[in-house]
Amino acid sequence: MRVILNKKMLIVSLIVLAILFPLFVPNQYYIHILTLAFIWTIAVYGLNLISGFTGYLSLAQAGFFAIGAYSLGLLTVKAGMSFWLAFILAPLITSIFGLLIGLVALRTKEHFFAIYTLCVGYIIYLVIDKWDRLTEGVRGLMGIPSPADIGPISFSTPLGQYYFVFVVLLLVIFLVYRIVNSLTGRSFIAIRNSEQLAQSLGISTMKNKLTSFVLSTFFAGVAGALYASFIRFIGPEISYTTVVFDLLTYMIVGGIGTLSGPLIGTLLIVWLSQNLQFLQDYRMLVFGPLLTMLIIFSPGGIVGSFHSWQLKRQERKRLNTGSLNN
């Protein structure tokens, strides 16, 4: 009971801190960077759902992120649709692509699935890059509107967009929490642990894998739509393979297969990136060895290592209590 209360207090404290941050640090640059970090966190939560909880490493997440961004951009700029309708449709369109691709991709397993999705992500990049008539190609799609006002609430300012993205992030975290702790989420974890055992228990593995994959693409679409409305200009580079490896880094550092890992990993790496900007292209000389050491000595990431430390501490306490009773 005490542990649950401590967790609730920590969550409430973090939410209050995020709400008050722009008021105590009214620096537009920091607000911009933190808003971007929140957007990337949403995409990482989607990736964590299929890769961390279901055990299928998808390398097409950047492609689905781009589909969400371009869906919102094309619907608003070229089709003249209202922002909020386009914002609702963008992740749905992304999910439809995810469903069609998942039906084929999920017939493969392990490294074959990873290679297939990597190829899919690169094909999405090529389509965006070469289909000039639709996507504007390397010139990029400009003039994407920011979120439309809702009555007296305005989202045209950086502060308004910060709070809008933050609210969406909270909703995504809540949804992921409910999914993971539901029967469906437990089915995902069972598939990750042993797909054959899950099948023997009567779990429809194909149905659950496809559900996980489509949900991951939905969250990628939400993140992409937010990115397009925040930056208001998008180009093919947002779907390039380097982006998906950035997302993987955020997830691995924070803790793959954990609920708080995507948030912690993304915020930490984004903060480090900004503080190491003076190194320019040499930043990878710092990130590379650090990431390698983390994977070798702490494969569970920051959150996974913390959970392992807690379990060991509880076990030691239980053993000490038992020895004292004897």
Automatic annotation (TrEMBL):
UniProt-recorded name of the protein: Amino acid/amide ABC transporter membrane protein 2, HAAT family
TM annotation in the entry: 9-25, 31-50, 57-77, 83-105, 112-128, 162-180, 213-235, 247-272, 284-309
Signal peptide: none
Membrane topology: Multi-pass membrane protein
Main location: membrane
GO cellular component: plasma membrane
Subcellular location: Cell membrane
Keyword Cell membrane: yes
Domain of life of the organism encoding this protein: Bacteria
One protein family per Pfam: BPD_transp_2
